[in-house]
Amino acid sequence: MNILDVTDLKVYYETIKGVVRAVDGVDLAVEKGKSVGLAGESGCGKTTLGLSFLKLLPSNGKIVSGAMKFDGNDVYQFNDKQFREDVRWNQISMIFQGAMNALNPVFKVEDQIAEAIKLHDKTKKKRERIQIARDLLHKVDIDPVMGGHYPHEFSGGMRQRAMIAMALACDPQLIIADEPTTALDVIVQKQLMDLLRRLKEEMDLSLVVISHDISVLAELCDYLNIMYAGRIVEWGEISEIFNNPRHHYTHGLISTFPTVEDQERKQKFEYIEGAPPNLLDPPMGCRFHPRCPRATEVCRKDPAPTMQVISDLHRVACHHPRGDNE
Amino acid sequence: MSEQTIIRVRDLRKLFPIRKSLLGSFMSEEDLFLHAVDGVSFDIHQDEVLGLVGESGCGKTTLGRLLIKLEESTSGEIHFKDTNIVPLSHEEMKEFRPKMQIIFQDPYESLNPRMTVLDLIAEPLEVNGLVENESEKEEQVAEILEKVRLTPPEDYMFRYPHELSGGQRQRIAVARALVIHPEFVVADEPVSMLDTSTRGEVLNLMMDLKDMTRSYLFITHELAVARHFCDRIAIMYLGRIMEMASSDEIVKNPVHPYTRALLEATPIPNPESRKEKVHIKGEVVSPINPPRRCRFYTRCLEAKEICGKLEPELVDIGGGHMVACHFDSNRL
């Protein structure tokens, strides 16, 4: 069963230079209890997509069209108050990018977690809220006593854990984790990934993990969406995507990623020629065509390729997809 | 590989004094120092790329800056070929400056936004008096732009950094460092700000342009990049080198418990090789006045009594594989 179902979502930003089409017709589903990755380069719209699940877009960002079903309810039809009370944080919460700096330096950590509970659940008393905050800290492997301390007394890894505790504050079903481990050292990153995986199992959480780092997604996710220039270009079960990528962009992303596992030293590094397009004026047709090794005339023209079914667990939007195990 | 040594570092230290509180100075508290680099020795040979890998705060950037004297060392020696440059004055260093260059991490910060590509690349040529006139300058800049594949050069020369993508900017930074044919280049996390899809292009360039320089110190926090880019890798932790060997040896036969933890923690872009827990405990301790013991003592799962009392030296355990650990060096 899908806990989240997003169809044909379009999110545009009004800027002085024109309309930036950050998310341009995205379909995305999250199965209950599963972890879904969203991969792409900087500026491809993945953070915007994550923010729109919570309707937390900046003031110039507008959800232009599309529907979002959460647990069967069409939650984009809710008014702001209803959305805040019934959906945001109570059902869907978020671990923000740069969470290490997202805590307020002048409040104790447990008070900040308790505040999140207060805003979204008015029935609980203060003592109850603090108790929940301490239990949550314990859950993310922080000594509950530390709750009475200030963020500067926490290490980077601990601050990130506190942000995870905050995301768990109202017992949500779905957590959006936006670059949850970026800017952390590898050992701390690994420990955090282990924690997220454990919490997901224990609390039967669903996760959307947004990252530019496909090795992090390989460790954390059950399914993977590859996003390019505002659109999802490939979706599939995680091993299927890594072992048998069909989109040339996906293949490029995977093969450009160096790994310590290689037996031989690379003589040359692979890379994808060019840079992602400016979303003020994205190219016609398939948005990847200016960088694609196999682009032909049909790719340069509208309409853009639509999602083709390769198997139950794999779909791709490409006119000339790579062959089976190519 | 030629065995001629370009850089020879011996027992190098950099201690940053920590300011005491007013009360503390009246009460004559112990002087506090942050030991950023604390007794490091290694060589970089001609035509070699040495990788310096470690987590944030381990002192790797400070070490890079010491080597080209952007920062004064507290003690120790840095020999550039036959000259110890540590005691040299600002004036005396001028002779050596054109022979050593640096590529900084962030191409959004390191390039002056008010200078054109031509001026940015020509600056090191002019400062070092390597060009006579305008046409010679443009010629040399055009030549290096070709080499870093920003072609045709005329299209790029008069642009400003904000008109370029991150990858293109970093290629300008590479051009700027290599245009005067230095013998030694410090590359401080040159690709960590770039998307993985464009990193390869910059790394390939640095590799291809090896003939314009002699050797690199490649500083990175990513073992996976170092594994492929570097001939040898030194693993640094809290101001000390823990292990140093060829990059093949480091990934296939890691000896120090810290190196092994780093390898275990490095994510693999392959869902089938999800790894078990990392064998390490606790968190990085403070580099301020560290006690004389193994720097990794508080986090090591294999630590014994001696590790808490004596700091292990970096010793060769065979074939140039150097390790600073009481146990592994005995065992092998």
Short description:
Chain A is built from 9 helices and 12 strands.
Model description:
- The complex is a heterodimer of chains A (326) and B (332).
- Chain A is α/β, with parallel strands linked by helices.
- Chain A has a single domain, classed as 3-Layer(aba) Sandwich (Rossmann fold).
- Chain A is built from 9 helices and 12 strands.
- In chain A, the strands form 2 sheets. Chain A has an 8-stranded mixed sheet with strand order 6-7-8-3-9-10-12-11, with helices on both faces. A 4-stranded antiparallel sheet of chain A has the order 2-1-4-5, with helices on one face.
- In chain A, helix 3 packs across helix 4.
- The longest helix of chain A has 18 residues.
- The radius of gyration of chain A is 21 Å and the shape is globular.
- Chain A starts with a strand and ends in a 10-residue tail after the last strand.
- The model of chain A has no long low-confidence stretch (mean pLDDT 93).
- Chain B has 332 residues and is an alpha/beta fold.
- Chain B has one domain: Rossmann fold.
- Chain B is 30% helix and 21% strand.
- Chain B contains 12 helices and 12 strands.
- In chain B, helix 8 links the parallel strand 7 and strand 8.
- In chain B, helix 7 runs parallel beside helix 8.
- The longest helix of chain B is centred in the middle third of the chain and has 14 residues.
- Chain B starts with a strand and ends with a helix.
- Classes of the chains: A alpha/beta (326), B alpha/beta (332).
